[in-house]
Every structure is written in C-alpha cells, then in structure tokens.
C-alpha cells in the first residue's frame, strides 16, 4: 500500500512539473510574440517614467546587531522590488566624510553606506551570478538568511525567457572577436561583441535557439516589454549630488536617464572598504 502511495505521489509531482513547464513555455511564447509586434511596428514605444528612491545610510547606525541591520537592508530591497523601483540611491546624510583625510579612519555612517550599497547589490543580483560577482566576505555573511526577491530576472536554469542576466567570461571567439557569457544555462552564450571579463550584462537570447545572443541595455526588458528587471544601485560620494533628483514624478526632471550601454552601472560591488554596524 505504501508503494502504491509513493507511485501516486511521484506521478502527481511529475504532472505538476509538466504543468509548470507548459505555463513557462506559454508565457515565453506570449512574450516573444509581443516582442515581434514591437520590432515590426514603425511606432516607437512610449517612453516610460522611471522611479528612484534615496536611502540615508544613517538608518543602520543605531541598530544593535549585524543580523538585524542585514534584515533592514533586505526589507528595503524587497520594498524596492515590490514597487518596481528603477534606482536605489544610498547617500551619507550626515556629511561625515567632510574634512576627513586619507589616513584617517572612515566614520561609521560612511562605512554603513558602503555596506548597505553592497547588500542591495547582492540581493538584486540573480542567485546564479553571485558567486562570480560577489566574493566571500564579512559583509555578506548574513545575506544568505534573507528571502530572495524573486523578481522576473531571477531565473532558474529551467526557466524560459527572452532575456537573461549574465557575466562575461574570459573565453572569446578569436575570429569574430565575440565574448562568451554565463547566463545560468548549461551552455554559455556567445554575444555580438567583445567585452571585458567579469562585467555583468543583459543578454537577449536568439529566438532561433542555440548559444547565441545580443548584449542589450538593462532597461530594454522594461522599455520594450514592460517587464520589471530589477533596480540599479547608486552611491554618490556626497548628499549634494542628490540635487539632480526632483521629488515627485516630473516629466521634465526624471530621476535618471536610462543607460545606453549594455553593462550594468552596478555590475561589481562597491570598491570602498566597509564595516557592518
């Protein structure tokens, strides 16, 4: 009797897995059809507004434990993903680095700004790229306890999608001068150009199949198909640089222009030293 129940459970799981696979394929075909309609249309897609938020690094200055500080940073990342924020800016609201010499120790608020920027970048990055982009260190030791954002660009190996995030490998097609990119699939994808190894890029996969793709702007999935593709992480050296951003959703003063390059502005963690709260 137990064996019969095991077989029933196995068949049920197989049926559910097949159903999920069919749903992914249907979603992929729908997205592909929408993309073809946009490409064939003579009209340019309507320019979509972008949303940016600014977070003061001092919010973690008085948090007692590093675990709790990591949890707070995780909640900020989750809120940004839920409300489809395009850019998260971490800034030093205390101007703690003003008048600090190079040989002097960094103030706590500035160190916390660097640390929070790293955590936000880590959580936004797809899981299959974190090993390549984020080396093991003290800053990330509690980040693994946080729930994943599960945004559309956080794809699994079996997921079907027109776009994928990837990291440029050292492997290059010498004749065509084209780089290979790891995008979380069994085979690496060869893109249409040669880029510096270690950079994070957005790849549009060839609809005909095979390991071919095109490096595109990280804003293209949203501007073309309306798919939220995560947030960028900015880290201005001073609060005065936030004057370029206007409150509200002014069409004359958008939070930030979309990047024209295919590489992510925050493709690598902040290079400054940091210490957790």
C-alpha end-to-end distance: 56 Å
Cα-based radius of gyration, to the nearest Å? 21 Å
CATH fold category name of the domain at 52-152 and 230-244? Alpha/beta knot
CATH architecture of the domain at 52-152 and 230-244: 3-Layer(aba) Sandwich
Describe the structure.
By secondary structure, this protein is an alpha/beta fold. It is 30% helix and 15% strand. Among the domains are: 52-152 and 230-244, Alpha/beta knot; 163-216, Nucleic acid-binding proteins (OB fold (Dihydrolipoamide Acetyltransferase, E2P)). The chain has 5 helices and 8 strands; from the N terminus they run H-E-H-E-H-H-E-E-E-E-E-H-E. A hairpin with a 7-residue loop joins strand 6 (200-205) and strand 7. The longest helix has 39 residues, at 2-40. The radius of gyration is 21 Å and the shape is globular. The termini are far apart. The relative contact order is 0.17. The model is unreliable at 248-260 and 269-277 (pLDDT under 50).
List the helices and strands and how they pair.
Blueprint: H1 2-40, E1 52-56, H2 66-82, E2 87-91, H3 108-124, H4 130-133, E3 163-173, E4 178-182, E5 189-190, E6 200-205, E7 213-216, H5 220-225, E8 232-234
Parallel strand pairs: 1-2, 2-8
Antiparallel strand pairs: 3-4, 3-6, 4-5, 6-7
What's the gist of this structure?
The chain has 277 residues and is of the alpha/beta class. Helix content is 30%, strand content 15%.
